[in-house]
C-alpha cells in the first residue's frame, strides 16, 4: 500500500495490537481526487473480521483543492449528528510510518451501486423514484445540521447571511482558480460577471455536502447507510447540493406526464424537513458547478506535470475542463448546449 513505508500488517499491529492478521486489502478503483483503500483484518484466529478504509492523497497531490485534514475534521463532526457517515478512527502523520498523512475510518457494509437503477423500463420507475427520495431524506438531514454549534465554520468559511451565499460560493471558486490557474480563460471573465449579477438569495444557510449522488453514497437494502466524499463540503445555499446530484433525480416521463424530476424532488425534499428551494437557485449553482469543474481541471493540469502523476490526471485536466468551459459558454448565452450523450459516456468512463 503506497500510503505506508512499512508492511500493512506491521502498521496495524502497531496501531491495534499484536494479534492482528491482515486478510485482504484492495484499492477502490473509482474516483480521482484521493486514494481509498479497503482493508479486512481480524484480531486473532477466532475473532470476527473487521473492515477499515484508508484515505489519503496521491503522491503527486489531490485534484481537490481542500486539504485532507479538513475531510477528516468533517467526518469527526458529522459523527456527532444524525447524518449517516462512517466513524473516523484516527489521523496518521507519523513520518516513521507514513510518507504523507492519511486517516482511517470504519468501513460500512453496503455498496454504492444499485442494481436496476439505470434500467429505463417502466417496471423500474418505483425503484428509481424511491432511491431518489431516500437521497432527498438524507440531504435534508445534512442541511439541518447545526453547523454553528458543531463548529464547522472553524474550517469552512461561511457567508454572513442568506443573501451572500451565491457570491460567497463564486468568490471561493475564483480564489482557488487564481491559485492553480495554468492558462488565461477570457470566457471566465464574462461568466463571472454574468453569474455575479444573478446570484440568488438562499432560503437558509446550511452545511452542504458538495459531491453527492450516485457513486458517493453507500446503500444497503435500499437505504443510505453512509454518506461519503465530503472533500467539497461547504457552508451556504442548500441548492448547491442539488446542482451535483449525479443521476439521483432521474427525469421520468410516461404517456406525456412527468412522473419524477427535479421539481418533484425539490417538493419532496421540502416535505421531509428540508426547506423550499427555488429551482432557479439550483440552475445558478449548476453554472457555478461548471466553474468548479474548470478549477478541478486546472488543479489536475498542475499535478500532471509532476513525476508522480496518476494516469487519470491528464484526462481530468483536458476533457472535463473543456466541457466545463462549453457549458459555461452556453449558460451565459454565447455557445450551443452540449450533448447529453457526453454525460452518459463520461459516467461510463469514470465507472
Q: What is the fold-level CATH name, i.e. the topology of the largest domain?
A: Aminoglycoside 3'-phosphotransferase, Chain: A, domain 2
CATH superfamily of the largest domain: Aminoglycoside phosphotransferase (APH), C-terminal lobe
Number of domains: 2
Got a strand count? 11
The helix/strand class is alpha+beta
Instruction: Give the strand order, joined by hyphens, for the main sheet.
Output: 1-2-3-5-4
What is the succession of H and E elements? HEEEHEEHHHEEEEEEHHHHH
Radius of gyration: 21 Å
Helix percentage range: 25-40%
Residue share in β-strands: 15-25%
Give the overall form: globular
Determine the number of helices (DSSP H or I, runs of at least 4 residues): 10
Mean pLDDT: 87
Low-confidence stretches: 346-351
Write the layout of secondary structure elements.
Layout (H helix, E strand, L loop, with lengths): L7 H8 L4 E8 L7 E9 L6 E7 L11 H11 L9 E5 L9 E5 L18 H19 L21 H16 L5 H12 L8 E3 L8 E4 L2 E5 L6 E3 L15 E3 L2 E4 L1 H10 L7 H26 L7 H5 L2 H13 L8 H11 L1
Antiparallel strand pairs: 1-2, 2-3, 3-5, 4-5, 6-9, 7-8, 10-11
Amino acid at each position: 500500500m503506497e500510503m505506508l513505508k512499512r508492511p500493512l500488517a506491521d502498521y496495524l499491529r502497531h496501531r491495534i495490537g499484536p494479534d492482528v492478521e491482515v486478510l485482504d486489502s484492495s484499492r477502490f478503483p473509482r474516483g480521482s481526487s484521493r486514494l481509498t483503500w479497503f482493508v479486512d483484518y481480524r484480531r486473532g484466529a477466532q475473532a470476527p473480521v473487521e473492515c477499515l478504509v484508508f484515505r489519503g492523497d496521491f503522491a503527486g497531490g489531490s485534484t481537490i483543492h481542500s486539504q485532507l485534514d479538513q475531510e477528516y475534521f468533517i467526518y469527526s463532526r458529522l459523527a456527532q449528528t444524525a447524518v449517516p457517515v462512517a466513524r473516523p478512527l484516527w489521523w496518521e502523520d507519523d513520518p516513521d510510518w507514513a510518507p504523507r498523512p492519511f486517516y482511517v475510518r470504519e468501513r460500512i457494509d453496503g455498496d454504492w451501486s444499485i442494481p436496476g437503477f439505470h434500467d429505463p423500463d417502466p417496471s423500474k420507475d418505483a425503484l428509481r423514484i424511491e432511491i431518489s427520495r431516500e437521497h432527498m431524506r438524507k440531504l435534508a438531514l445534512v442541511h439541518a445540521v447545526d453547523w454553528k454549534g458543531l463548529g464547522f465554520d472553524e474550517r469552512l468559511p461561511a457567508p454572513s447571511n442568506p443573501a451572500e451565499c451565491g457570491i460567497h460560493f463564486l468568490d471561493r471558486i475564483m480564489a482557488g482558480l487564481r491559485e492553480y490557474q495554468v492558462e488565461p480563460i477570457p470566457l471566465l471573465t464574462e461568466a463571472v460577471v454574468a453569474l455575479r449579477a444573478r446570484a440568488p438569495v438562499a432560503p437558509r444557510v446550511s452545511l452542504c455536502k458538495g459531491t453527492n449522488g450516485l457513486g458517493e453514497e453507500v446503500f444497503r437494502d435500499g437505504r443510505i447507510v453512509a454518506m461519503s466524499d465530503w472533500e467539497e463540503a461547504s457552508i451556504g445555499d442548500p441548492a448547491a447540493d442539488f446542482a451535483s446530484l449525479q443521476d439521483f433525480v432521474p427525469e421520468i416521463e410516461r404517456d406525456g406526464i412527468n412522473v419524477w424530476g427535479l421539481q418533484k424532488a425539490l417538493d419532496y425534499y421540502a416535505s421531509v424537513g428540508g426547506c423550499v428551494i427555488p429551482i432557479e437557485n439550483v440552475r445558478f449553482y449548476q453554472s457555478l458547478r461548471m466553474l468548479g469543474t474548470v478549477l478541478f481541471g486546472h488543479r489536475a493540469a498542475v499535478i500532471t506535470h509532476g513525476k508522480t502523476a496518476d494516469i487519470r490526471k491528464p484526462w481530468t485536466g483536458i476533457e472535463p475542463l473543456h466541457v466545463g468551459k462549453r457549458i459555461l459558454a452556453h449558460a451565459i448565452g454565447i455557445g450551443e448546449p452540449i450533448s447529453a450523450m457526453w454525460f452518459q459516456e463520461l459516467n461510463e468512463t469514470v465507472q
